[in-house]
Specification:
With about 350 residues, this protein is an alpha/beta fold. The chain is about 30% helix and about 25% strand. The protein is built from twelve helices and 18 strands.
Length: about 350
């Protein structure tokens, strides 16, 4: 079968690899019908987050079940399923607490052990606890939005939940990538009264405004903090969604937060210690977050997608087949595309 493999920085190849298949009784095999390139894929693409090359790429997918292991009970051949970026058994203590990304038998796709989703097919461990059967056909018009439930919509939602976005509160979203844009949707959905996007790209700003952003700040660092303080009458914001993962973004997040506010970190951190701990301490700012347990959020978000109340699939502004994946990486890395969908 064909799959995407990263061999070195900027060296993405579509290669013939051994066919995916059932290895464990709890596995399912899916034929991938939709996948995508994630902003977090750009870190290894640029030579960071080194996990060893060659590296199978991709952790977001919708697919059709082709086979199941002997112990799989909730899925059958032909089911259309969304695959969260992490696999989980659904039965351990952490899964029961809604923290599937900490499952005792779990792990992450896009790894040497499991394989990547930017491929024709994929083995899914712990299939019962991981895959979520969708009430649609494989070519439903809602596929772009349903695909975001595998990562970016659930991740934006996680940032908003951790940051305690809600009615009567002001939220700031740091980052205008797909996760940040979905964070705007999430903050709006949870009832935030005012939503400030920190971003610089005209196409993304326009989409953010359609999603519910009320204000845009294009400055960075101290200048961004000063501008947000002007907007909020010197108070700062209740909720900050940090969707970038750099130390500067976290320092800005703490600077934006009002006393007693909260920061939801979902950008994969590229720093060893959390910046601005001292001001966060004296402002009583809560800083939390991590890999979003998107499997736990699907039940909550799916009805709004199915009924058209939210349209996170609009973050996809380019679609490619597998042969177009290397160009898709270049386009996202150069900010020529917000998020690229892959149709193997």
């Amino acid at each position: 079968m064909l799959a995407t493999v990263l061999h070195a920085a900027r060296d993405v190849r579509i290669e013939t690899v051994p066919d995916a298949g059932i290895k464990e009784a709890t596995d399912a095999l899916i034929r991938v019908t939709r996948a995508c390139i994630c902003g977090s894929d750009l870190w290894p693409y640029n030579g960071q987050d080194f996990r060893g090359y060659p590296l199978p790429m991709g952790h977001e997918a919708i697919g059709v079940v082709e086979a199941v292991g002997s112990e799989v009970r909730t899925l059958k051949k032909g089911d259309v399923v969304v695959m969260p970026f992490a696999f989980s058994d659904g039965t351990c203590a952490f899964c029961h607490e809604g923290l599937h990304t900490s499952c005792r038998q779990g792990g992450f796709f896009g790894s040497l052990d499991v394989g990547g989703a930017q491929a024709e097919a994929l083995r899914v461990p712990q299939a019962d606890g991981t895959l979520f059967a969708l009430p649609v056909g494989e070519d439903d018009a809602l596929m772009p939005s349903l695909l975001t439930l595998s990562d970016v919509m659930g991740t934006g939602h996680h940032a908003a939940v951790v940051a305690k976005a809600g009615p009567g509160r002001t939220a700031a979203v740091i980052g205008d990538g797909a996760v940040g844009l979905c964070g705007v949707i999430a903050a709006k959905r949870l009832g935030a009264e005012r939503i400030i996007l920190l971003g610089r790209h005209a196409d993304r700003i326009a989409l953010a405004r359609e999603f519910g952003a009320t204000d845009v700040v294009s400055e960075r660092g101290d200048e961004a903090v000063e501008r947000v303080m002007d907007i909020t009458g010197g108070m700062g914001v209740h909720s900050v969604l940090e969707c970038v993962g750099t130390d500067q973004a976290v320092a800005t997040a703490v600077g934006l937060a009002r006393p007693g506010g909260a920061v939801g970190r979902v950008g994969v951190p590229h720093y060893d210690t959390i910046p601005s701990s001292l001001p966060a301490f004296f402002k009583n700012v809560t800083v939390g977050g991590g890999p979003a347990p998107v499997r736990a959020y699907i039940n909550d978000l799916l009805p709004d997608v199915m009924e058209g109340r939210i349209e996170p699939g609009r973050v996809f502004d380019r679609a490619v087949d597998l042969s177009g994946v290397p160009e898709g990486y270049r386009a996202m890395n150069d900010r020529d595309a917000i998020k690229v969908m892959v149709r193997p």
